[in-house]
Design a protein that fits this description.
Elements lengths: L2 H10 L3 E7 L5 E6 L1 H5 L2 H14 L2 H4 L4 E5 L3 H12 L3 E5 L6 E2 L10 E9 L3 H12 L3 E10 L11 E6 L12 H4 L12
The structure holds 1-O-pyrophosphono-5-O-phosphono-alpha-D-ribofuranose, orotic acid (ORO) and magnesium ion.
Orotic acid (ORO) binds next to strand 2 and strand 6.
Length: 193
């Protein structure tokens, strides 16, 4: 799948939002990629996961023991990636603010993990999830995502394979352009404010 084809999937299901958004990192943006809308169709979610899998070099893919994704955004694409690779897919949650495994999920000591995200902006959530996997006894060998909003700038400390890399501007709270500051802000994600 080309990046233009992926973008047109987002456009066709109303997943490219315009407005004023507070992102997970606390930064603000006039654009938001609502991946849940793209992933609400199972066939499309499966196709996207298989396209991401194709981006991961075979030697890394063959090492993966288990897929781990950070809830909420990573859940559906992580599950589909597990199906694409023929591996189990489990997820991290942060009801108390820190990612950990719940629901009886556990990693075998030294398990090689593919981390799967929906969107990476600053990489903060990914780094927190990678640290959580280490605390749980596993090792993240690579990460993949539907979208890299940093256009390749982000450093996760592991090889990173996004399906689409875009440069989408975001701003610190005290550096908002006046036209953005004039629009009421919404916070679509679930990280506690
Ligand atoms: O690279 P970052 O700057 O960390 O931003 C990307 C993260 O933000 C979103 O999650 P969010 O925390 O909004 O919660 P959600 O997944 O529960 O929607 C998205 O799903 C990524 O996890
Ligand atoms: O950085 C984020 O929180 C973020 C940006 C985006 O475009 N989409 C999303 O789900 N999260
Ligand atoms: Mg998330």
């Amino acid at each position: 799948m080309t990046e233009e084809e992926v973008l047109s999937e987002f456009r066709s299901c109303g997943a490219l939002l315009e407005g004023h958004f507070k992102l997970s990192s606390g930064r603000h943006s006039a654009q938001y990629l609502q991946c849940a809308r793209v992933l609400m169709n199972g066939e499309r979610a499966g196709n996207l996961a298989r396209a991401i899998a194709q981006k991961i070099p075979r030697e890394i893919r063959s090492e993966v023991d288990v897929v781990v994704s950070p809830a909420m955004g990573g859940l559906i694409i992580g599950h589909e990636m597990g199906r694409a690779l023929g591996k189990d897919a489990i997820f991290l949650e942060r009801p108390d603010g820190v990612f950990h495994l719940r629901r009886g999920f556990a990693l075998k000591p030294g398990a090689k993990v593919l981390m799967v995200e929906d969107v990476v902006t600053t990489g903060l959530s990914s780094r927190e999830a990678i640290e959580a996997v280490a605390r749980e006894g596993g090792e993240v060998i690579a990460e993949c995502a539907l979208v890299d909003r940093s256009a390749g700038e982000v450093d996760l400390g592991v090889p990173f394979f996004p399906l689409m890399a875009l440069s989408v501007p975001s701003y610190a709270e005290d550096e908002l352009p006046p036209e953005l500051a004039a629009i009421p802000v919404t916070k679509p994600g679930s990280r506690a404010a």
